[in-house]
């Protein structure tokens, strides 16, 4: 299975594509962060996110797109902008005919680190270890996107095992 993880953000939107083979081994295909300039109009920033995610989807052909579920924010303006970025990520996925799966931040950290309140640095280190990367991803946003994709693969594997045991 091949998964695109997207970490939606107002300044940087991270993305990462990984796949899992039949033996359960994870493989990193690509990752990065889309830098958004605050001085640009919001619609231009959203267009850049859509264009880059569309390129990644076209180039790597994931089977599903995963994003972080909505969380509560203190700043309403930031929450609205984050919602718009999430909408654009969902639109790029839907335009390619892909399903979007959402995961809570605690579930993502638990799946990757084993602890739902893990620090960003711990997530980065575990992502590097699980994907056998030569170094920790430089961008924490890219690492978070990879973590979201790993969470989905771990969840899908668990559900598949449970379905087999129910037969």
Tell me what you see in this structure.
The structure is a single chain. The protein is α/β, with parallel strands linked by helices and 167 residues long. It has one domain (2-166): 2-Layer Sandwich (Nucleotidyltransferase, domain 5), CATH 3.30.420.10. It has helices at 42-60, 76-95, 105-112, 120-130, 140-166; strands at residues 2-7, 12-20, 26-35, 64-68, 99-103. It has a five-stranded mixed β-sheet. The radius of gyration is 15 Å and the shape is globular. The mean pLDDT is 91.
Any idea how many domains? Answer: 1
Overall CATH architecture: 2-Layer Sandwich
Based on secondary structure, the structural category is alpha/beta
* CATH fold call: Nucleotidyltransferase, domain 5
Helix residue percentage:
40-55%
* Major β-sheet profile: 5 strands, mixed
Q: What secondary-structure arrangement, pairings included, does this model have?
A:
Layout: E1 2-7, E2 12-20, E3 26-35, H1 42-60, E4 64-68, H2 76-95, E5 99-103, H3 105-112, H4 120-130, H5 140-166
